[in-house]
Amino acid sequence: MQHNALIVGASGVIGSALAERLLNGQWRVYGLSRGRTPVPAGCESMVADLADAESVASALKNLKVDRVFFTAWARQDTERENIRVNGAMASNVLDALGGSLENGHVALVTGLKHYLGPFESYATGAVPATPFREEQGRLPVDNFYYEQEDRLFAAAKRHGFTWSVHRPHTIVGYAIGNAMNMGVTLAAYATLCKHTGRPFIFPGSATQWHGMTDVTDARLLASHLEWAATHGQGQNQDFNVVNGDVFRWQWMWSQIADYFGLDAAPFPDQMSPLGDRMQDAAPLWSDIAGHFGLREANIDKLASWWHTDADLGRPMEILTDMGKSRKAGFLEYQNTRDGFIDLFDRLKAERIIPA
């Protein structure tokens, strides 16, 4: 059966990977975005301000889809504002589509801040024991993820569609102009170190360096989203989504260094956040881009220093249990080292970083 899908946030790291997968599977795919970056080839572009109900309603007028994937969010100054804005974004899309979604499916992507809390109160309360499991539930804090879930659940009851919630760890995947993209950020950082002679220093905490962790490849998440939207076992359920392997950053850092022909610097005596050390990255990258003929000379469209610092600077172990998905029938696995290398190879092929 051919499905008609709407991807909200189709130009992002998750949405673009999902669009590529669905298009290869002969889906008809509509991509809703702000229009700042192009959606993947083959995706029918739709432009709207998700926070503006009239803009969304106009863009989606007369659209007929049976699957919706919500992968977008807009960062605000406070969590209360995150709740207001991101909750409204979800409602605007669901209200605009309304009864046309009857017997369809809507998938919402959130993340592990479901268990950790939002950035402004990050891990300040009682963090559940790792590995995180879906049955651990919500924290007693404001969190826009919870607001989006509640609006999804209410709309599903009103309009008669099934739902799924997907909670990935840090996403590793290809996207340009994405505000939360550790893989591309690390590629840009390694490139800067290689061409300036600076040491390739891990920017995070000792806990992350020595402890066990996991991540989520955008391609595996795309597969998980498609599975949940097309299999009964994935409907009306919340799921963690990670690659299926675990690693320590002290090992992965050396693997990334080797790829770029660098020596991995010893772990520093104190944290060395990228946000503090990359203040001069813009002119340096512009020079590198000009010298090698790269497609993007603006480092701000490639690197999100703040987000990578937040991920790698966590003071606690982050591990995620995938047992619920496995028991429901989703058995795919992605080797994390291979995922990083695939991404770096694509960045070279697309002339985002030097070959």
From TrEMBL:
It comes from Acerihabitans arboris. Residues 64-354 form the PRISE-like Rossmann-fold domain. It holds the Pfam family PRISE. This is NAD-dependent epimerase/dehydratase family protein. PANTHER family: 3-OXO-DELTA(4,5)-STEROID 5-BETA-REDUCTASE. It comes from the Bacteria.
